[in-house]
Amino acid sequence: MTDYTLLGWMVFLGGGTIMVLQLIVPNWQGACDVVTNFLPAGKSVWLTIDDGPDPEDTPRLLELLAAHQAKATFFLIGQRAEQYPELVDAIRASGHEIGCHTYTHPTRTFWLAGRCKTRRELDCALPHIERERGEVTLYRSPVGIKSIFLRGLLQQRGLRCVGWTIRSGDGLGQDPDVIVHRVVNNVRPGAIILMHEGYRVASAVRIVAIQRVLESLTRDGYDFIQPTTDQLRTVPVKSLTPEPTTTTKELLCN
Ligand SMILES: [Zn+2]
């Protein structure tokens, strides 16, 4: 193998690796412009709740949010929205925003999806999520995985791809305290918090983790808001300055 051939293979494989990383790493820019945080007007965060609607969880979440005067964005799965249209209407009637979270929630193979499959995941979902009442402008990929056709298809439909600043881990964890601690210790104004509803969340965590996050951050003076389009930013999460949390503030004072 000549040096040039070797160099060619290195460039090819390196480029391929970068492309795959753009597709499978949730907040990696490139395959899409991914919103990772927002420019806060005050001490505010953006709570996002994925994988609904759910007949058990959604009504309880709407009550909890109302009790905390909090707004959230629900990224709904199209198939579930089709199954529970009354819950889609209830979310919208409560003043919360709704985003598209694909039709079937494909995960492992979505980064390999072709143009038709990617288009179906959007176009089959949107009618059930919009329900002729509201135009949806936000999209979140399942587990943050994107296909190479996503950017163009999102642009055509006026959708922004939203990632997150803080992954709560509620879809994997069994202990609500660990999940709440992770959120509280990483929170800062302008953070997007990723949480989930529905049967995939462990029963010990379901609802409880979101309730405790609402309680804890409200106590710390945070507002739960829906940022405007102008506030959305795609800067890398690691470059954001963390806000001292209650825990670190206490450590600094003691
Ligand atoms: Zn999801």
UniProtKB/TrEMBL annotation:
It comes from the Bacteria. Gene3D superfamilies: Glycoside hydrolase/deacetylase. Residues 43-225 form the NodB homology domain. SUPFAM superfamilies: Glycoside hydrolase/deacetylase. GO terms for biological process: carbohydrate metabolic process. InterPro entries: Glyco_hydro/deAcase_b/a-brl, NODB_dom, Polysacc_deacetylase_ArnD. Keywords: Membrane, Transmembrane, Transmembrane helix. One of its GO terms (molecular function) is hydrolase activity, acting on carbon-nitrogen (but not peptide) bonds. The chain crosses the membrane at residues 6-25. PANTHER family: 4-DEOXY-4-FORMAMIDO-L-ARABINOSE-PHOSPHOUNDECAPRENOL DEFORMYLASE ARND-RELATED, GLYCOSYL TRANSFERASE-RELATED. This is Acetylxylan esterase. It comes from Cerasicoccus arenae. The gene is nodB.
